[in-house]
Amino acid sequence: MDRKAKQNLYAEGMKILSGAIVIRSGTLILLPGEDYGAKGCYILADTYAYKNGKPLNETNSILIQTDWDYPGAASNLGYDPCSDCCEPCKGETDGTVDCSTRTAGEMISEAREFLDDHLYKEFEDPGYLGGNK
Ligand SMILES: [Zn+2]
User: Fold this and answer.
1) What is the number of other CB atoms lying within 10 angstroms of the CB of residue 66?
2) For a Cys staple, 28 with which of 44, 65, 90, 119, CB 3.0–4.6 Å?
3) How far is the CA of 62 from the centre of ligand 1 (A)?
4) 29, 120 in Cβ contact below 8 A?
């Protein structure tokens, strides 16, 4: 590939990694794991790969498979584990540890519901796949 062609790819937001062209849209789409044989899990896939029917793999998607990953993933979609907390909580948790008014268990199941409500929604990649740098 010549220099000009490479520059064009960069200009379109694509990223060239270790010789292979990996297309990064910079946005992710939340998918139900069960559609990909991973029941009970969620998949965050690069929107470009998903919309263009590319096979999802470790370069263009992330598997969210443990309960402990739910609050973090949900937070990236706008979930706030402490939004319904009252005093004395000041939002001191990311949802994986108890805060002063609620348990991590409550927040993890709430995060799971939040993810279920946001399936197929797109959001900016906060860095799971390197973002769109
Ligand atoms: Zn709280």
Assistant:
1) 10
2) 44
3) 27
4) yes
Ligand 1 centroid to 54 CA: how many Å? 40
- Tens of pLDDT, residue by residue over 91-127, are 888 899 999 999 999 999 999 999 999 999 999 988 8
Distance CA 30, CA 42 (A): 7
Distance CA 50, CA 28 (A): 9
The number of beta carbons lying within 10 Å of the beta carbon of residue 23 is: 17
Rounded to two decimals, what is the model's pTM? 0.76
Report residue 126 as tokens.
């906060």
Q: How far is C-alpha 1 from the chain's CA centre? A: 32
Q: What are phi and psi of 46, to 5 degrees?
A: -60, 130
Query: Distance from the CA of 24 to the center of ligand 1, in angstroms?
Result: 35
CA of 108 to the centre of ligand 1 (A): 12
Q: For residue 31, report the distance from its CA to the centre of ligand 1, in Å.
A: 28
- CA of 42 relative to ligand 1 center, distance in Å: 25
Could you give the angle at the alpha carbon of 71 between the alpha carbons of 67 and 77, nearest 5°? 130
